[in-house]
């Protein structure tokens, strides 16, 4: 009687059958979820953006037919003192608003990352201004900046009454006075982004650093910051885009004044388009804003990729 062995069609047999399936068909529902938003985005975002590039090369008042002027609008910017002021103020806004948002948000995230009693209250308090609209934030801070308002009262109570001034009416302080409420709202948003990134850091890395005798600053510098490269890319993109499109809070508080001292490229673009009805020139300013945002973000991403490679 022969021993019972494995047949050739078994798992260890010589001839193994493999199933070859053809290309998987994509569900119509999935296609709908992908194509419908793409069509909406193309109609309401991509096509108007392309039209904006075309209008930047024209002289158009919104009523008559656009007249092609080539790069004439961009040439006019060179001799436009208001544009130069708005460009300088936008650079200041990008550095101060962006830099202080990152520093403040990262610092608050480090301070509040540990789960302990009452920490949720502080997180909620810092995030609450993000829930308010920028117009509401502007109205609140306009009350604070009024003569004998909260800001003046605080300065006088700490013996700094000599610094009291009409904050929003003084060309020397208007821009910086508007940056403060913008930061008040933005720091909580950046804090949440960094808190999400800190939750993803492996605690074993901190334990190993402690065993090696690393101080708290060294753990932050050599463990935390390198582990947050992905979050930093997101934060930079958010900060740059928010900085260059900042409009609501500036327009609600100063309308770019006094004497264009708080004018940004976004507010100048709006006033040029809808008050001076120079839509071609305003489209050229929009192109400048787009190029600035793209240059800063791509510059950072290229540098980050080079460091990783």
UniProtKB/TrEMBL annotation:
CDD domains: TM_PBP2. Gene3D superfamilies: MetI-like. Residues 1-22 are annotated as: Disordered. Residues 87-300 form the ABC transmembrane type-1 domain. It is found in: Cell membrane. GO terms for cellular component: plasma membrane. The keyword Chloroplast does not apply. GO terms for biological process: transmembrane transport. The chain crosses the membrane at residues 26-47, 91-112, 124-144, 174-196, 279-302. PROSITE patterns: ABC_TM1 (PS50928). InterPro entries: ABC_transporter_permease (IPR051393), MetI-like (IPR000515), MetI-like_sf (IPR035906). Keywords: Cell membrane, Membrane, Transmembrane, Transmembrane helix, Transport. It is a multi-pass membrane protein. Pfam families: BPD_transp_1. It comes from the Bacteria. Belongs to the binding-protein-dependent transport system permease family. This is Carbohydrate ABC transporter membrane protein 1 (CUT1 family). The lineage of its organism: Bacteria, Bacillati, Actinomycetota, Actinomycetes, Propionibacteriales.
């Amino acid at each position: 009687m022969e021993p019972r062995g494995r047949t050739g069609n078994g798992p260890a047999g010589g001839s193994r059958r493999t199933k070859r399936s053809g290309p998987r068909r994509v569900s119509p529902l999935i296609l709908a979820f992908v194509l419908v938003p793409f069509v909406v985005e193309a109609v309401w975002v991509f096509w108007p953006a392309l039209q904006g590039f075309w209008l930047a090369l024209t002289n158009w008042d919104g009523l008559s037919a656009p007249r092609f002027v080539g790069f004439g609008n961009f040439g006019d910017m060179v001799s436009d003192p208001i544009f130069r002021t708005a460009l300088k103020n936008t650079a200041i806004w990008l550095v101060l608003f962006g830099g202080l948002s990152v520093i403040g948000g990262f610092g608050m995230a480090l301070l509040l990352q540990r789960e302990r009693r009452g920490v949720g209250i502080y997180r909620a308090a810092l995030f609450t201004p993000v829930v308010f609209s920028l117009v509401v934030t502007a109205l609140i801070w306009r009350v604070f900046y009024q003569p004998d308002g909260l800001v003046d009262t605080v300065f006088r109570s700490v013996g700094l009454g000599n610094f009291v001034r009409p904050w929003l009416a003084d060309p020397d302080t208007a821009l910086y006075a508007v940056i403060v409420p913008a930061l008040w709202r933005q720091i909580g948003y950046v804090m949440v982004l960094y808190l999400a990134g800190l939750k993803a850091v492996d605690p074993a890395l901190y334990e190993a650093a402690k065993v090696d005798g690393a101080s708290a600053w060294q753990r932050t510098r050599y463990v935390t910051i390198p582990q947050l490269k992905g979050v930093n890319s997101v934060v930079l993109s958010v900060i740059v885009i928010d900085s260059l499109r900042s409009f609501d809070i500036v327009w609600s508080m100063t309308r770019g004044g006094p004497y264009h001292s708080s004018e940004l490229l976004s507010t100048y673009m709006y006033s040029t388009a809808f008050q001076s009805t120079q839509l071609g020139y305003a489209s050229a300013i929009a192109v400048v804003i787009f190029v600035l945002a793209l240059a800063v973000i791509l510059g950072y991403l290229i540098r980050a990729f080079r460091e990783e490679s």
